[in-house]
Amino acid sequence: MLARLSEEAFDDEDWVFEIKWDGYRAVADLSNKQPLFYSRNGISFLSKFDKVVDDFSHQKYKMILDGEIVAYDEHGKPSFQLLQQIGDNPDLALTYQVFDLLWLNGHSTEELPLIQRKELLKEALIETDIIKYCDHIPEKGIDFFNQMKKMELEGMIAKKADSLYIENSRNSDWLKIKFTNTEEVIICGFTEPRGSREGFGALILGKYIDGELIYSGHTGTGFNNESLNLLHQRLLKLVVKTSPFEKKPKTNMPVTWVKPELVCEIKYSEITNDGIFRHPVFVAIREDKNPEETEGSMIEMNQINEKSKEMKAKTPLKKTEISEKEKEITLNKHKVKLTNQDKIYFPKDDVTKGDVVEYYQSVADYILPHLKNRPLSLNRFPNGIEEQSFYQKDASDNIPDWIKTTQVYSESNDKYIDYIYCNDKATLAYLNNLGCIDLNPWNSSLPDLDHPDFMVLDLDPSKKNSFDHVIETALQVNEVLNSVKIKGYCKTSGSTGIHVYIPMGGKYDFDQVKDFAHILMKHVNEKLPKITTLERSLQKRDDKKIYLDYLQNRTGQTLASVYSIRPKEGASVSMPLEWDEVKPGMKPTDFNIHNALGRIKEKGDLFKPVLGKGIDMMKVLELLQNLE
């Protein structure tokens, strides 16, 4: 649960007040034998803060805790900069300040009032030299705030005493009230250094405002030589040719643009009405924050500005050019804000963002069954298919509270990833508005993500293959399937390949399905050795052959959903086919945003059986052995 920025301290008998710690927010999951310890965006803290983790062994109860990791300087004052340098300071004084309890001995506590959760926490938590219960004071917020100011702390948190714990929610039940004006922003580029300075001159800063990356100023102060050089080396690995901003800002010096991936914290004096930070000073890189977490609205930016000037907002804010393009629609009883609907997404086809939203709403009844309860990898094109795109798996903290998410542990990243899944028209429109042109679901669905509902045979051509080669290969796949009495379901990828799906009914795990797909692809390869290959390595693979990709059947792999638009010239759609349509001369662009709906209505959902009863894999394997 997140806190909303508020202007000033207050007294209220229905509220409690806590210290605002300047550290890393961290969840400790002690519900199993092996503890989990991770940040808001799922980064594991197990090794980085092993001193805290070691003290979890003193806890008697199975719990899930919410708190903040805090480092202290020699004066006993919390220091975020020191916390970042934990690797260089193993003897650093640390505490894990625990302020909430989310789960206790098999039962969620999130729907209990805050004050009851804290009473349970105080009873259940065993304090150590490192793990501490974060206490609070009731009612007297103004006195508490003034005391925090004397102690030169960052501020205070105000919480409604009866507030429930709502994950991923930033509502007015929790408020943060700070002494200094600080903000998280995204580094989008850097200017050339002047004089004797090395590395870079200034950082170009941005924030996501209403879903669009907006220029928000630049800073060249707050660095020493070491931090400047270290940051410069990191930025050189993120360099891109084009500006990540839709509206390129004017700068006095040449700019090197970078991928908008690094978040930093700045101090500033105020924010101008057009969202520019005045006198920003670099504080630190925020490894624990995602770029999407800087998401706000121009109204919120102005509200922060009002606070920084210590004024109360009583006059309506002028509409900006962005807000004039906005519209709000209601779907599934949820309000969805749509921005920049006239933005061109497909320049050569004159297809806009609004066209993409409208298409998905028109086919929602057909595509939603294929997305239902499936974690999604978001492939975002906020400025259209010819501009920079990025993949996002982890949901940001700023998503509406009605968007459904599920946490999945990633072994490769050693962290929990908070995946969005799309079960309704409102979520569909929200994702399209983020710039998701295509939708990429898992092969498995909740509640059982370990057993895929279908198998995918992905025919992936090289640049030297024609689409007729792909068609020939698909027909050979169908022959192999027919020989062992399997019905496969074929669709264009919408790009250069063809996908053949086989229903599995959630009866087998990913390794079993992957191995089975490998066996089938071997048979296809034996029939067409001149134009197909099973070689995974691009360096070793013959660049004139179609790759028979069976590895799409691993946990967490995604492909563009059936009926999904693809971010390719022509605005093609991944379209199911009847096998008698798979013949030379057909092209992926035959099915696109303009004609897809008519075809779908005429044919119905040809892919519906993919979600049905699965095949008997053991019987098929016996038939395959007989073929050999």
CATH superfamily of the largest domain: DNA ligase/mRNA capping enzyme
C-alpha termini separation:
58 Å
Mean pLDDT: 88
Rough shape?
A: globular
Q: Give the oligomer, counting copies of the same chain as homo and different chains as hetero.
A: single chain
- CATH architecture level-2 label of the largest domain: 2-Layer Sandwich
CATH class designation of the largest domain: Alpha Beta
**Count of helical stretches:** 14
The third-level CATH topology of the largest domain is D-amino Acid Aminotransferase, Chain A, domain 1
Low-confidence stretches: 307-324
Let me know the largest β-sheet.
6 strands, mixed
Per DSSP, what share of the residues sits in E-state strands of 2 or more residues?
Answer: 25-35%
- Helicity level: 10-25%
Global Rg: 27 Å
- Counting helices, strands and paired strands, the structural category is alpha+beta
How many domains is the backbone divided into?
A: 4
| Structure summary, number of beta strands | 34
